């Protein structure tokens, strides 16, 4: 288990309980169960306490937790017959973006998402979920196909942002993002998005311009990272706590602002403590959002999506 | 069509921009260090006469030089909710707004207007880098939507001059939402078959580049303008190497196929007129210093405005 800095006291208690149980395994004479159970209860209480009042910055940390379920986990558990489709037909296949055909509750769909990877090797392979222009262009191609064959589009967003690299800029990062957002707005099929971890800036919105957008309880969605914002506005990257607060990047604030439609509850202690139930809850929400859009005509889907974004922000926090 | 109806008066506009600045001030070119007489500089559209460096220009000065006779009508932009997030960093957002308004004399970071250029009716929008770095928030989004709606209503092309450091951080996620919002605006133009020309000026970066500023039918940039999604410093920190000379500048983007043209600001008006009249299937413009047409009494005659 990877512990976040604010989880240190929790790590100590859980560590002690684990130690006791390990000792008891070796020495059968020892009766530690009562003590271990007391520690468990203490840990439970502390976990509840910590997670019932996560600050925006702590939510950023939870959203970036390395053991949080990622795109691949969701696709494997929630979709069948997943058939990855690769490449932008122009330059490369961007492994920061997964996507292809799959069935969701037996219905064929196109699924697209950012994959961050789960260990050093796979993180490098997936470029930490930071897409290059090819990733957006692959997504455009897949959305086009979905539109032609009348398949709903499901996107799973989890990215620190678009990759700030030399080649990415030379190959038109901005144009690729702009066109991807544009494509999201053009397709005449239902589109639903779940922000599962980090919704980082333009790299996220290019996938999240959908008819319905949901966020996991402790995920974040922001125009800039708190560190980036702090270094610009506070001239000090260490002011990320203040920046996270000011940016209103939590699912709860974004729901108040009517930027997202639904919040998906996470298990106590965050998605990384119970991937299985998190994934199931995400699946149920995708099903519900798709059901909302069933039987809608292509023109109405496009109209609804446009109006949703045109109206956005008109009431501020009072919404 | 009457030849006079597409007559172009190229020189009158300098009269109007001249009024804005005092006569006896000098500006130092931040590129070559030459001291430039203010009036001379504004007559030259803020382009250094020594090294051709393009300095910043306000939307108002640009429009005065762009539109026939310097005459344009501002398009109303719906007012968004002020300070939608109750944002504060070291300063409160409303205080930052107030000081930007005081410093620029403008309400916000974008100006939208209708008028004619070389007798070609257009809608134009220009972003004001001097107003909080031209940053894109709800107002800029509303301005672009208003510009597109006006263009569709009047059946005119839209010319947009971009200049921005990126999103308005003080509006958080709502500034990010201007990417899809402005993209919807551009789709309205496309569906109405109206040309949308983007003129990218220094600097155009971040979310602005990744939305309306990259979706033009024709993409023109001013010389040496920095145009990018991620800024050079961020990239250097990420890849830990020095970037090549001219990286992310207009000419570099042109070489990499990201732009149609790089055009000197002093030639921009002529180029826009030429291109727009072709796209709108209008007869070619008549260039040169000809007498004012008599059928447009609302425009001051060149004589009345005075020649140099
Ligand atoms: Zn100079």
Task: Quickly describe the structure.
The complex is a heterodimer of chains A (319) and B (308). Chain A is of the alpha/beta class. Helix content of chain A is 50%, strand content 16%.
Write the layout of secondary structure elements.
The complex is a heterodimer of chains A (319) and B (308).
Chain A: H1 8-26, H2 33-52, H3 56-63, H4 71-78, E1 79-84, E2 97-104, E3 107-114, H5 120-125, H6 133-148, E4 153-159, H7 166-170, H8 173-186, E5 191-200, H9 201-208, E6 212-216, E7 220-222, H10 226-234, H11 240-247, H12 251-256, E8 262-264, H13 275-293, H14 298-311
Parallel strand pairs in A: 3-4, 4-5, 5-6, 5-7, 6-8
Antiparallel strand pairs in A: 1-2, 2-3
Helix pairs in contact in A: 1-2, 3-11, 4-13, 6-8, 8-9, 10-11
Chain B: H1 14-18, E1 26-28, E2 35-37, H2 38-43, H3 59-66, E3 72-74, H4 93-104, E4 110-117, E5 120-127, H5 138-154, E6 158-164, H6 172-176, H7 178-191, E7 196-205, E8 218-221, E9 227-228, H8 232-239, H9 250-255, E10 261-262, H10 265-279, H11 302-305
Parallel strand pairs in B: 5-6, 6-7, 7-8, 7-9, 8-10
Antiparallel strand pairs in B: 1-2, 3-4, 4-5
Helix pairs in contact in B: 5-7
Q: Which structural class is indicated by helix and strand composition of chain A?
A: alpha/beta
- Based on Cα principal axes, name the global outline of chain B: globular
Order of helices and strands of chain B: HEEHHEHEEHEHHEEEHHEHH
N-to-C span of chain B:
31 Å
Backbone shape of chain A: globular
CATH topology of the largest domain in chain A: 2-enoyl-CoA Hydratase, Chain A, domain 1
What portion of the residues of chain A fall into strands of 2 or more residues? 15-25%
Main sheet: strands, sense, barrel of chain B: 8 strands, mixed
Number of helices of chain A: 14
